[in-house]
Every structure is written in structure tokens, then in C-alpha cells.
Amino acid sequence: IPYTGSKVLTLALALDxxxxxxxxxxxxxxxxxxxxxxxxxxxxxxxxxxxxGELRYPMFVKPSHEGTSVGxxxxxxxxxxxxxxxxxxxxxxxxNQPILAEHYIKGREITVGIVGNLGxxxxxxxxxxxxxxxxxxTLTFLPPLEVDLSAYDPAEAxxxxxxxxxxxxxxxxxxxxxxxxxxMVHQLNLLAAAVFRVTGAKDVGRVDFRLxxxxxxxxxxxxxNPLPGLNP
Length: 232
Hints:
By secondary structure, this protein is an alpha+beta fold. It contains six helices and ten strands. The chain is 26% helix and 22% strand.
């Protein structure tokens, strides 16, 4: 049955956040460090711990296989091992799936929409390891959109939560185009094109980023949303 958008494998891959991050990591694309928990008492990876045995940085906890920020609340940000295990236990019980914990990137939330497709030669050029400054002319990059998290209740802790997306759906606050330097827009477009390529996306997609305010606004890839999705 003909349809538009990405094929089944890409749709399934994008719905599996840890697997997507493994693909991004393999290709050298910046995504926050992470670990997947199947039990709350799973051993924590050494590279997530500091010399004292505590978390090296805040972590963000969310279900592995959900959309619309299901499971994402202000409590998703954890600072200690005890908080991490408590939040993982709660989400395992509620969502019955592996739980993703990744380095929490404090900063602006940006999304880049793409329309078009990559041919084989163009796809090779957008790979970060070979030609990091060439944008493919077969893709159209929509203006970057910023979620204005400062406009929401401080109780949301600067997080694009499920409550914001569902319960406050009539009061979204976006900045489009996002107030970004041209060099940053170019960098985000390059990364979005690379994500589009390595996940096998087709026709349309949206790549979500966080700009790390503690590291010179370095962009980190959160995920790709290859609309349309796996729903009736």
C-alpha cells in the first residue's frame, strides 16, 4: 500500500529512543550520554559516575518507547543515585518498558523540520566525518522553532512535559524562527540532515535538539520524529 513518509523500519527505530541514540553514537553524532534500565537496581555505568561514586551530572529519566513526552515531568530530572533509582522504579511500574536515563542538557529546546529526500551521493556528503559544512540541496530546512519554556509555570522546571503538550495544548509558546545566529542555524541543519540520513528517514521529519548552556550552547540531538507515525 503506497504511503508518504518514512518506511516501517525508520518509524519503529525512531519510536525506540535508546536504539536511535545507539545509531547516532555509532555515527559520531552528538547525543547525551545514556543508560537503559530494565530494573531499578541495575548497575550504573562507570562513565556516568564521578570519583565519589555519585552521578557525574544531572540525569533525565523517561520511558524508552513513548511519544508526546509521555512520562516526562519535572521529576524526570534527577541529581543523585537515590533519585535516579526511585524515578526509574516508578516509571518501570507505570509504563512496563525499559527506562532511558540520559545526561540532562540544561538549555534551549530547538526543533528543525525537514522536507525532501537524500540521494546516495548527497547522503554521503552530509555525514559529519566527511564533509561537515555541505548542506544537501535536495532537502528543504524549515525555520528552526524554539519552545519558549520560560513562558510556562516554573513548576514545569524548564521541561517540555506531557502536561504542557496535552493539558495546555491551547497555550503553546513558540518562537519561529528561533532567535539564533546564522552559524548555529547552519550547524543545526547539518546535524538534522545527518540524522535524517543515518535513520533512513523519507519525505518529512523533525529533529529535536537541546543547546547546552553550560557548554557554549553546543547542540545535542534528542531524537527524530519521522512524521507520520505508527498510529491508525
